[in-house]
Design brief:
The chain is mainly beta. 4% of the residues lie in helices and 48% in strands. It has two domains: 29-209, Jelly Rolls, CATH 2.60.120.200; 224-498, 6 Propeller (Neuraminidase), CATH 2.120.10. It is built from one helix and 39 strands. The two termini are 50 Å apart.
Length: 509
């Protein structure tokens, strides 16, 4: 006679079985996948851990009318979220209206309510939605066609679709009055638009972001952080490290083997071979903010630490491996940003008499010299690799823009002239390019660079000229406050933010 299982055993087995089934069906950052509706050919989704890319195959008659047929990789979500990816169809395709994109869905039923950010095989780009179960699908078409980057956001019950060609800024459509409730499915989908055909697509830079909550108090409350490395040729970005706290300002070492970033007032070296962080001993300078810079010879660090009266930031220098720091700015606030290539000077943003300007000071200490005198904020100074110029950002023309001047402060010239707020220009080691971070003027005032906003990372020629977007992300303060170019001038390090972390990426404490 077999013994009877106790109820606690049955319950335990149920949850173990359910977890095993979910784990088996999970794909990357998504909880599960499957075909929606009576598709003729089973679809699939595959996640490549090395590249952090997804490949989807699927068939299905259509996503339209009163019901849908497609393949779906999904995650359950509540509250606000931001969904973003780069999309590429694989192969010539059969039907011009094959579809891929993001989908938010009330259920996994074929007739469920949904809001979908869609790119068609013929380039048509549209926001599609079904307002009620078994209702007819409606559509808002973009004038932009053939979008490469697709973003779908839910904010306070409103859905916002933003799309772009690679390198360009977003264009947007908004949608109200589709109420699927708080608990929804979100994910990537593919539909062949022909039940007898299987189509394929590839997705990179796939991000599901849980943004800042209402009532978040800046500089007291923080979202999780991820350090990402961007390949400028492919514009594919990989998350190499994430924690549920604030990481800021990754700064590439001269040998290309490590990053230096700040966290909770300390600086850390992050070994790129082992993905291991190690705290740097900076002695009494133990209240470090995200303004730090490595000397061109790779031997020294200039750091900014709140050691002044009432926590005011002062400038220090310390050996890159750690040691007792030497204070070099006698007063503050002082925020260290750039070494001269010969190591003799450090340029910084300093507030004197309630006016923020660019200063330089001997790296061994000495009298400081004011280089900018225009009213308003001048910030983020950094030398070019040849030492001829100092690049900085200034609000003097209305919005925050990128400027440069000769190393003695003369010939101050504006380099960007657009309708955004542009901060923290960093010159590539080969001296050819400038990277900077861009905030929307509708979200951020010109003199501010806050946490947790929609931002672009952009690159332009070192003498000015057309800029292109190389990364679309949720970040801001701490994303690229410091020089973040790899020594090869082909990669960038930056920080993105989310209140949601995924175990498929390296997670720290």
């Amino acid at each position: 006679m077999k013994p009877k299982l106790g109820s606690w055993v049955i319950v335990t087995l149920f949850f173990v079985t359910a977890f095993a089934a979910r784990a088996q069906n999970a794909i990357g950052i998504f909880d599960g996948q499957g075909d929606i509706g009576p598709v003729k050919h089973t679809g699939s989704g595959v996640y490549d851990n090395a590249s952090q890319q997804y490949a989807l195959t699927g068939s299905g008659t259509n996503v339209w009318g009163t019901h849908d047929e497609f393949h779906y990789v999904w995650k359950k979500m509540k509250g606000d979220f931001i969904l973003r990816t780069n999309i590429t169809f694989l192969g010539k395709g059969v039907e011009e209206h094959r579809k891929v994109g993001w989908m938010v869905r009330s259920s996994l039923d074929t007739n469920a309510m949904h809001v979908s950010a869609v790119v068609h095989g013929n380039g048509l780009t549209s926001l599609q939605f079904r307002r009620k179960v078994s209702g007819v699908t409606e559509e808002k078409k973009f004038t932009l066609t053939g979008a490469d980057i697709i973003q779908l956001e839910r904010k306070d019950g409103r859905y916002i679709m933003s799309v772009a060609h690679k390198g360009e800024t977003f264009v947007t459509e908004k949608l109200d009055s589709v109420d699927m409730g708080d608990d929804v499915y979100v994910g990537l989908f593919i539909c062949s638009h022909n039940p007898n055909v299987v189509e394929k697509a590839e997705f990179n830079n796939v991000r599901i972001v849980a943004p800042a909550w209402k009532g978040l108090i800046p500089y007291r409350d923080y979202l999780g952080s991820a350090i990402e490395i961007l390949d400028l040729e492919t514009q594919n970005s990989r998350i190499i490290y994430q924690i549920p706290k604030s990481l800021q300002a990754p700064n590439w070492t001269q040998d290309g083997k490590s990053l230096i970033y700040n966290r909770d007032g300390k600086l850390y070296t992050f070994d790129l071979a082992t993905n291991t962080p190690t705290a740097i001993n900076t002695g009494v300078a133990n209240k470090n903010n995200n303004d730090h810079v490595i000397s061109f010879d790779g031997k020294m660090l200039a750091v900014s630490s709140g050691n002044g009266e009432h926590g005011v930031s002062l400038g220090f220098v310390v050996p890159i491996g750690g040691g007792e720091p030497k204070q070099i700015t006698p007063i503050g606030p002082s925020y260290m940003h750039g070494w001269s290539p010969d190591g003799k000077y450090i340029v910084f943003c300093g507030s004197r008499n309630n006016e923020y300007d660019v200063y330089r000071i001997p790296s061994n200490g000495g009298p400081e010299e004011r280089l900018t005198t225009s009213p308003g904020l001048d910030d983020g100074p950094e030398y070019s690799p040849d030492g001829k110029y100092i690049y900085f950002n200034s609000v003097r023309s209305g919005l925050m823009q990128v400027w440069r001047m000769k190393a003695d402060g003369s010939e101050q010239t504006q380099l960007t002239h657009d309708d955004y707020n542009n901060w923290f220009p960093h010159v590539s080691p080969d001296g050819k390019w400038i990277e900077y971070i861009t905030f929307s003027k509708d979200e951020v005032s010109p003199g501010d660079h806050p946490f947790y906003k929609h931002v672009y990372l952009r690159v332009m020629p070192v003498d000015g000229g057309p800029s292109k977007v190389v990364a679309y992300l949720y970040g801001g303060q701490g994303t690229i406050n410091t020089p973040s170019w790899a020594p090869d001038s082909k990669h960038l390090a930056f920080v993105s933010n989310s209140n949601l972390l995924f175990p498929v990426f390296p997670i720290g404490q």
